[in-house]
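example protein:
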Amino acid sequence: MTHEYGQQTHQHVRPHAGESAPFHFESTWRVDASPTEVWSVLSDVESWPQWWPGLPVAVPADDRIVPGSRADIQVQSPIGVSLRFGIELQDTGPPRFVSFLATGDLRGIGEWTLEQTGPITTISSVWCVTTSRSSIRMLRPVATWMHSRVMRAGHRGLARRLNRLMP
């Protein structure tokens, strides 16, 4: 994978035997804060459940944000389906870029980029995953809706969190 900060590129995840076709999601958040302020919240994985509804569990394996760092995540979908997966940091360019691999109920890649325009930071997220869980595969028709709901809740939570942190 080659990457220039601010421009997301990736190869779609190729399904293994017994896995779904890839789910591909893109989200954009805009917040009134600098990339450094946003990065300080996003890199504190352990605090995600405090501000991101739909993520009741985020447990980092260590307190470093370096390639190889891991965290266990649980996402609760709007219809009650729970997903558990681990993320492993692959690449990072604080405060502008992070990429990670996911394993567990979801397998694939994720990337976040942060770009500042004036006082606004735009956070772009790309998430490309497969699953071997048949119950998740059956939800494909509503997957984009569910992902969008969880991400909108995260966007609102991040904005609230940053307001508390900003002078």
User: Anything to note?
Assistant: Strands lie at 23-32, 57-60, 70-76, 82-93, 97-104, 107-117, 120-130. The chain has a mean pLDDT of 91. The radius of gyration is 15 Å.
